[in-house]
Specification:
- By secondary structure, the protein is mostly helical.
- Helices cover 74% and strands 0% of the residues.
- The chain has helices at 25-36, 41-44, 50-57, 61-77, 82-89, 91-109, 115-143, 148-177, 180-185, 188-210, 225-254, 259-283, 290-309, 315-339, 344-376, 380-396.
- α6 (91-109) runs antiparallel to α10 (188-210), α11 (225-254) runs antiparallel to α14 (315-339) and α13 (290-309) packs antiparallel against α14 (315-339).
- The longest helix is centred in the last third of the chain and has 33 residues, at 344-376.
- The chain is globular.
């Protein structure tokens, strides 16, 4: 029996991998790293400066908490319009504009004279991070469609490195300058480097768009069950991460450790997270990542369980172990939307959809832990809630199978 097969028109499929197009791999990687390094210092650098900011501007502690919550909320809310902006004006151009907003807002924050101005500048920081972070994953999908996990691992490692550098150096910078404004403004410099690098990418992409047809606007995967499960997994992981970042040091101080020792434990957490991000991206070679997802979630759950059961027993083992699993899960969760998308534009839409609930939930995480601490007079209940959330992550992993019907189609 003969089976008649239809051949698609030659223009329907672009067989050449995207790795062969555009800037060299080395230049593209450098640009990705430089941009990713700027996506957290605008938030993290405020923590060490809070006492001086509170004293100078007269903030309450609730208002001070908003300096972290506002950017985190915007990272979720503004992820939704980001794909539309990329479709309307061009992805690389919008990323460049977002970096300009980010740099200007960090600079403006050094000049504020009132609480309202401070919140306005903080919102600009969140907006720049939200849009650039959402769309950069689409660039990774377009540039390296067959090596997504490896380069997303590099991307997330760069984010973690930027966070670590900001956390470690902002305090000493403020002491050296004897002024919190100079220390806050220092983080304009890496943004300026990223803007210079991305100008090269944007000009190259503009030349491609001039000869290409405009694709259809991407749609959010609102009716796709897998998209909702990815969002749940990512939301749980981010809630645990931001809760730990906010409260790990106070937890161990309350348990009788010195502030220096508690700071070392927190440093162990950020280090464990940073080490895991490239490793899990490298070992996850298949687009069906459920086994590696289960391993990362299981490691995070084991570490969280040990901390909840006996927090003062070997914290420099269990805390980095929990962070190691969380960091691996973060890299893989950032990769999952790209696995389920057929084009870079669709990847941006999937990433935006996943980020909306995940960062809104992440902003709630530290508040939840603080609320449970108030009603329980200790962090014991809070730690067990984080264990339950880790268990939910693990239970979701068997259902995160990618859509294998998608084909990688290259767009400019």
């Amino acid at each position: 029996m003969l089976v008649q097969c239809k051949t698609l028109p030659q223009t329907a499929v672009t067989p050449l991998p995207e790795e062969t197009k555009g800037p060299s791999i080395a230049i593209a990687v450098l640009c990705i790293v430089l941009v990713a390094l700027t996506l957290r210092p605008g938030i993290v650098s405020i923590g060490p400066l809070l006492p001086e900011i509170i004293q100078e501007l007269g903030l309450s502690y609730i208002q001070a908490a908003l300096l972290t919550s506002i950017p985190t909320l915007l990272m979720g809310a503004l992820a939704i319009p980001a794909p539309w902006l990329a479709h309307r004006f061009g992805r690389d151009r919008v990323i460049l504009a977002a970096l300009l907003v980010l740099g200007a807002s960090i600079g403006l924050r050094t000049l504020v004279g009132s609480i309202g101005q401070l919140f306005f500048a903080t919102a600009g920081v969140g907006a720049g991070i939200a849009i650039a972070g959402t769309l950069l994953s689409g660039y990774v999908k377009a540039r390296f469609p067959t090596k997504v996990a490896i380069f997303m691992g590099l991307y997330t490692t760069s984010i973690a490195l930027g966070s670590t550098l900001a956390a470690a150096s902002t305090g000493p910078l403020a002491e050296a300058a004897e002024n919190w404004r100079w220390a806050a403004g220092f983080w304009v410099l890496p943004v300026a480097l990223a803007i210079g690098a991305w100008l090269f990418i944007e000009r190259n992409g503009r030349q491609k768009r001039a000869s290409g047809a405009l694709s259809a606007a991407p749609r959010l995967p609102l009716r796709n069950p897998t998209a909702w499960l990815i969002a749940l997994f990512f939301a749980c992981n981010n809630l645990v991460f931001y809760a730990m970042i906010a409260w790990l040091a106070p937890i161990y101080i309350e348990l009788g450790n010195t502030p220096t020792a508690a700071g070392m434990i927190l440093a162990g957490y950020t280090l464990g997270f940073m080490v895991a991000t490239p490793l899990f991206g490298f070992i996850s070679r298949n687009d069906d990542r459920r086994i590696v997802l289960a391993v990362s979630a299981g490691i995070a759950l084991l570490g969280s369980l040990a901390i909840a059961v006996a927090p003062n027993t070997l914290p420099m083992l269990w805390v980095p172990l929990a962070a190691f699993g969380t960091g691996g899960a973060f890299t893989l969760a950032m990769t999952l939307p790209l696995d389920n998308a057929s084009t870079p534009e669709e990847a941006g839409a999937w990433s935006a959809f996943v980020m909306l609930p995940s960062y809104i939930v992440a902003a709630v995480g530290p508040l939840l832990v603080g609320f449970l601490r108030d009603i329980g007079d200790s962090f014991h209940l809070s730690l067990w809630v984080l264990v339950v959330i880790g268990a939910v992550m693990l239970l979701v992993t068997p259902f995160l199978k990618p859509n294998r019907n998608n084909k990688v189609l290259i767009s400019p």
